[in-house]
Amino acid sequence: MGGLVPAGRRGEGPRRAPGPRAREDRGARGDARRERSLSSAGGRDPDGSRPPAHAAPPASLSGDRPLRGRNAAPPKGVGHEHDTDPAGTGGLMKIGIIGAGNIGGNLTRRLTALGHEVAVANSRGPETLTALAQETGATPVTVDRAAQGAEIVVVAIPFKNVPDLPEGLFDGAAPGVAVIDTGNYYPRRRDGRIAGVEDEGLTESRWTERQLGRPVIKAFNGTYAEDILDRHRPAGAADRIALPVAGDDEAAKKAVRDLIEELGFDTVDSGGLDDSWRQQPDTPVYGLREGIEGVTRALAEASPVRPEAFRG
Ligand SMILES: NC(=O)c1ccc[n+]([C@@H]2O[C@H](COP(=O)([O-])OP(=O)(O)OC[C@H]3O[C@@H](n4cnc5c(N)ncnc54)[C@H](OP(=O)(O)O)[C@@H]3O)[C@@H](O)[C@H]2O)c1
Predict the structure, then answer these.
(1) Is the CB of 294 under 6 A from ligand 1?
(2) For residue 283, what is the DSSP state?
(3) Bridge partners of residue 119, in order along the sequence
(4) Is the pLDDT of residue 39 over 50?
(5) What is the pTM of this model?
(6) Which atom of ligand 1 lies at the shortest distance from residue 159's CA?
(7) CA atoms within 13 A on the CB side of 289
(8) CA dihedral 122, 125, 131, 137 (to 10 degrees)
């Protein structure tokens, strides 16, 4: 594997999503967009930090499992049939979103715009989510209600807070619920040192899965939050970007890939959760805005060595 870093990752200067304090004040998407443009900064990663240089060159990989790109089906809009339709709702799903910040908030916006029934929760309670509810039509709920009846649940909270989520969170979820983990471990800036990652060598999503006690699918972790609103494209568009998706449960992974494609992005199967170091912070694919080919190449170029800047 060469050291190729596809064009557009480092030098393009993608914009930064609004920080939590700015978010509290915004009441409408227009405000959010204004904040994003005000906070624009070059060379930022999806979580808003400046990416350090790679600490290690890409390792030579033997026995790579296939990284499969996918020719997306046409995006499904409101009322279109979804591949998985267990509830018989014509493709519209019940989706729970835990975390209403940069990622959770924008997923709430897009998924409601597509017609899905979204319940959204944060740590402070539903009464603090009235502006987002009015804007989107999502239902604000307490965390312990977020997964009720849900076919897909998105966990979009800071990594270190995952163990705080209530036990039995998924008890009332739909059978076979797919759980999306958007998280990244930022030991120095936010999360502190987490032994399971540092000492046991668990991938970030494997650690999260253990905290939650159920399988997760890793997706959106390297996606700029604003791209969820601004960079979706119809299938086949020349500038449609692809997102890597990792996980062990093939049925859940398919459901998540279908949803992402409906959201307006191609997907690349990046393997199982133990392979998901390939898309963790500071890897070539993290923050990459390229199509299936570029994403597949970037995943193959990743190093399993955790960069020094991302050690606690
Ligand atoms: N920002 C990005 O562009 C981006 C991109 C890809 C991945 N990620 C990753 O995705 C995750 C979320 O990032 P973010 O930027 O969206 O975070 P954020 O803007 O800080 O928002 C975090 C959200 O999580 C909620 N929360 C925190 N602890 C909670 C708990 N115990 N129970 C329920 N809700 C809780 C917060 O609620 P309160 O406000 O009420 O506390 C808030 O709504 C992180 O792991 C991050 O690294 C972020």
Answers:
(1) no
(2) S
(3) 96, 139
(4) no
(5) 0.81
(6) 45
(7) 23
(8) 80
